[in-house]
Structures are given as structure tokens and as C-alpha cells.
UniProtKB/TrEMBL annotation:
Any one GO molecular function term: DNA-binding transcription factor activity
The protein's name in its UniProt record: PLP-dependent aminotransferase family protein
Family: In the C-terminal section; belongs to the class-I pyridoxal-phosphate-dependent aminotransferase family.
Any Pfam family hit: Aminotran_1_2
Domain of life: Bacteria
Gene3D superfamilies reported for this sequence: Type I PLP-dependent aspartate aminotransferase-like (Major domain), Winged helix-like DNA-binding domain superfamily/Winged helix DNA-binding domain
SUPFAM superfamilies: PLP-dependent transferases, Winged helix' DNA-binding domain
SMART domains linked: HTH_GNTR (SM00345)
Transmembrane segment boundaries: none
UniProtKB keywords: Aminotransferase, DNA-binding, Pyridoxal phosphate, Transcription, Transcription regulation, Transferase
Residue span, HTH gntR-type domain: 9-77
């Protein structure tokens, strides 16, 4: 406990004043237990008699209450005195990086946050949580905690996890990776941050999808990249619109484009790889929701077609397990591998070893594969329920971009402007339904009312009730023609 003594008068008096200041200033709140006298004497290098004398005076003045068999507790005599608070001081940004942080990122305005006070919310980005996963993961963590060495892990990641990731990618994503080329990271956000540091100087150009995931966009902008938006259609990135002056990096989500859900066609994938090879630029492949397709087998990742080693492939376990896990991976081209490992070391010395070991065992013993099968089945049921309910109740009023993948749908209010979409979102919130606009994911949003409807965290019954509320709001909305 930090208790400064002022050096004036007897030691017990100095201790009394210091403790009273801590109580009146709010550092020792009412109801908190005072330290035992012997312990406080040791901490402050005082005699125990000095502390006992101070405690006796605090009891006499009403700052302490003794409870038999429990100890002595802080009491606030009279009305509490509010601690003096200094007004926050806004200082100018202290670096170019800080200037870009303030320009591009606002914690209070991030899209996709939960809407408070609603009964149902179509919040996207919130994954399905399988109750069976909790106990399975607890067992894996318990085993890992008992057998994982307590020293620092390697910055690149535990070898057994990197090997397990390679086996999973070969089986599920068509990527033939070697453990020595895998770097374990905290997720996609760290992957894009490390990629920017390894490949980009301030002012370098990066081609990015339009629309795109805002967090990747902001990470690149804060790093100092100049972003070149390239439109997306139903076949993914428009490779025919890639810039004539080649960018240093191209960022894509080919297996399930966010937020449109588009699947990049094989012809576009080959054209993109050819472009990168001819122009000596790199591709950052975010394999977003590539595990969950409901119309056919998952498509092979772009990296699986890459013979020229231009693709930096990244995936995460946040959506398929749970976001709090904070584990993902990069498969780096061999020529960049050491740079990525060094950048990871500088960032945090390495991801948590116990969680890595638990995940490696979960992957190796088949638990992860069983979880994926159960999750895909449940998500398909929820997707089918949402599609069916929307088509039955308001099909004529909607255009639904069904991607047959992922955990959200993109829905357009037919013939309605962006402003009308905002008004509809506001009405729905007043009626207890959380809705989310697609507009924040564009550099130049279209004048259309587009909504992202996430269904991963809602049961079938909740989805049907939320869809009824959606239809009721749509019927209530008096759209001006």
C-alpha cells in the first residue's frame, strides 16, 4: 500500500494523516478492509506499535470500524469528500503516427457495435457459440497448463501448433504450407499490421476492395499507406480495374468478401495472381469465413493457386471458436518469413503459450473438426430460417445478396435511398430491433439502403421473432416516394 508520510511530528500521527487523506480522497473506499497491523508495519518499515497507535486514533475519529473475527474496515465519517479531478488536457499529437491515429480511428464511432436497449439485434461479427465448446476448451486448457513450459514461447509460435495449422489448411483450404512458414499471431488485425510494417513505407499505395472491412482499412491508413479502392461485384474484386501503376500490396477477401459476401471466381483469382507476378506486388489474403459454405464444399484459398509465392495468407480462429481466444496465423512467402518473425518478436515476443498448446491439441485430436461440423450445421439452419422469414414476410420489398456462406446476409431495401435506410434503422431501434448499415464500409457509399444482418448469435426462434419485427417496421415505415 502506498502511504506517503509527511515527516511532520510523531510517526503514528504521520500515518494517521496519510490514511485519512487516502480515505477522504477516495483511494481507500468505504467498506475496504484495512491491512493487518503487522503486514502494514512490514510494508512501511514501521514498528507494529506505531501502526496500532494510528489505528486506535482512526477508530476514535470514526474512520475505522472493527468487526470481531473479521478485521477493521474503512468508514467514511459524514459526507464523503469528492477527490479533486484535474480537467483533461488535450495535447497535440506527438508524432505522425499519432496524427494518423486521431484522423482515422474513433473508438466511439466504430461500426458494428451492439445497439443498447433492443430486444433482438442482427449484429454481425458475433459468432455462434457452441455450449459444447466451453467444456471441451476447458479440458484442453487444463491439459495445456499442466504440460506447457513456463518460459517465453518462440516468437514464431509453438511448433506443434504451426504443424497442426498446416494440416488443417491442407485438409480444409487447399493450402500446402510448411510449419517453418507459419507465424502465430493474435488475429487478422495483427496480421495486417505486421504486413504493413514488413512491406510498406509511408506513402506506398495499397489496392483494397470497395467496400471493405473498416479495421483493415484503418490499420493501413494509420500506418501511412495510400489506399486505392477497387470495386467488387458478384465475382469478387474487379481485376480489370486494378490500377495501371501497380500498388505495393493488394488486400482481398476472396473466399467470402466482406461485407458483400461475394466469392471471387477462379478466372479473377488467376488474373489477380498474374497481375501480382507481372508487377512484382504482394497480395494479402484474408480468408474471412472461408470455412463456412452452405451450397457446396469450401473453395480452395487463393494461396493454394499461388505458384509465384506472392500471397501472404492469414486466417483466424476468432470466428470459428470465440473472439476472446485471440489466435490466428500468417503463412508467409519464404522470402519474407524472417522479416515477419522479427516483426512479431518486436510486437509482443510471441502469443500466449498455454492457449497455443491447447489449440494445437484441439486441432490434433479432432475436436476442432467436430466443432466445425456442428457449427456449420447450426449456422445453415439459422441462415435458412432468416432467408425463409424475410422472403415470406417482405420479399417484394427486399433485394437479398445471398452468398451461401458466412454468418451474415446483405439486404437492400428495394428502391430506397441511404437516407431512407438510416430512418428505417432508427425506427427499428425504437421498436427494439438492432440493425446495421453497410455504408461505413465504403469509401464512397452508394445512395442505397443496405443492411448487414448477422445471424450467428441468434437462435432460430429469435431469428423468426426478429424477422417479424423487421417486417412490422417495414410496414410501419412511411417512405416518401
Amino acid at each position: 500500500m502506498y502511504l506517503p508520510l509527511d515527516g511532520r511530528g510523531p510517526l503514528h500521527g504521520q500515518l494517521v494523516r496519510s490514511l485519512k487523506d487516502a480515505v477522504l480522497g477516495g483511494r481507500l473506499p468505504a467498506g475496504l478492509r484495512y491491512p493487518p497491523s503487522r503486514l502494514l508495519a512490514q510494508q512501511l518499515d514501521l514498528s507494529r506499535n506505531t501502526v496500532l497507535a494510528a489505528y486506535e486514533q482512526l477508530r476514535a475519529e470514526g474512520f475505522m470500524q472493527a468487526r470481531v473475527g473479521s478485521g477493521s474496515y474503512v468508514v467514511m465519517p459524514g459526507a464523503p469528500v469528492q477527490p479533486r479531478s484535474e480537467p483533461p488536457q488535450r495535447v497535440p499529437p506527438q508524432s505522425a503516427y499519432a496524427r494518423r491515429l486521431r484522423r482515422y480511428h474513433d473508438h466511439g464511432a466504430m461500426p458494428g457495435r451492439g445497439v443498447p436497449g433492443v430486444l433482438h439485434s442482427f449484429q454481425y461479427g458475433v459468432p455462434f457459440t457452441n455450449p459444447l465448446l466451453t467444456s471441451a476448451w476447458a479440458r484442453a486448457l487444463s491439459h495445456a497448463a499442466a504440460y506447457t513450459p513456463p518460459n517465453y514461447p518462440t516468437a514464431q509460435g509453438l511448433p506443434m501448433l504451426r504443424a497442426a495449422v498446416c494440416e488443417y489448411l491442407s485438409l480444409r483450404r487447399g493450402v500446402q504450407a510448411r510449419p517453418e512458414d507459419v507465424i502465430v499471431v493474435t488475429g487478422t488485425q495483427q496480421a495486417v499490421s505486421l504486413t504493413a510494417r514488413v512491406l510498406l513505407d509511408e506513402g506506398d499505395e495499397v489496392a483494397i476492395e470497395e467496400p471493405q472491412y473498416f479495421a483493415v482499412r484503418e490499420a493501413l491508413q494509420i500506418h501511412g499507406a495510400r489506399l486505392v479502392p477497387v470495386p467488387v461485384d458478384r465475382e469478387g474484386l474487379r481485376t480489370d480495374l486494378l490500377p495501371e501503376r501497380p500498388p505495393r500490396l493488394i488486400c482481398v477477401t476472396p473466399s467470402h468478401q466482406f461485407p458483400t459476401g461475394a466469392l471471387m471466381s477462379l478466372a479473377r483469382r488467376r488474373a489477380l495472381l498474374d497481375y501480382a507476378c507481372r508487377h512484382d506486388c504482394w497480395i494479402f489474403e484474408d480468408d474471412y469465413d472461408g470455412e463456412f459454405r452452405y451450397d457446396a464444399q469450401p473453395h480452395a484459398a487463393l494461396c493454394g493457386l499461388d505458384d509465384s509465392r506472392r500471397v501472404i495468407y492469414t486466417g483466424t480462429f476468432s470466428k470459428v471458436l470465440f473472439p476472446s481466444l485471440r489466435l490466428g496465423y500468417i503463412v508467409a512467402p519464404p522470402g519474407l518469413r524472417d522479416d515477419f518473425v522479427s516483426a512479431k518478436w518486436v510486437d509482443d515476443f510471441g502469443s500466449p503459450a498455454i492457449e497455443q498448446a491447447a489449440l494445437a491439441h484441439f486441432l490434433a485430436d479432432g475436436g476442432f473438426e467436430r466443432h466445425l461440423r456442428r457449427t456449420a450445421k447450426t449456422l445453415k439452419q439459422r441462415r435458412d430460417a432468416l432467408l425463409g422469414a424475410l422472403r415470406r414476410s417482405c420479399g417484394e420489398a427486399l433485394d437479398i445478396d445471398d452468398s451461401n456462406a458466412g454468418m451474415h446476409l446483405l439486404v437492400w431495401l428495394r428502391g430506397r435511398s441511404a437516407a431512407q435506410g438510416d430512418a428505417f434503422i432508427a425506427l427499428a431501434q425504437r421498436r427494439g430491433l438492432g440493425l446495421y448499415s453497410i455504408a461505413p464500409y465504403y469509401f464512397d457509399p452508394p445512395d442505397r439502403a443496405g443492411l448487414l444482418l448477422g445471424y450467428g448469435a441468434l437462435s432460430v426462434a429469435e431469428i423468426e421473432e426478429a424477422a417479424r419485427l423487421f417486417a412490422a417496421c417495414l410496414a410501419e415505415m412511411d417512405f416518401p416516394e
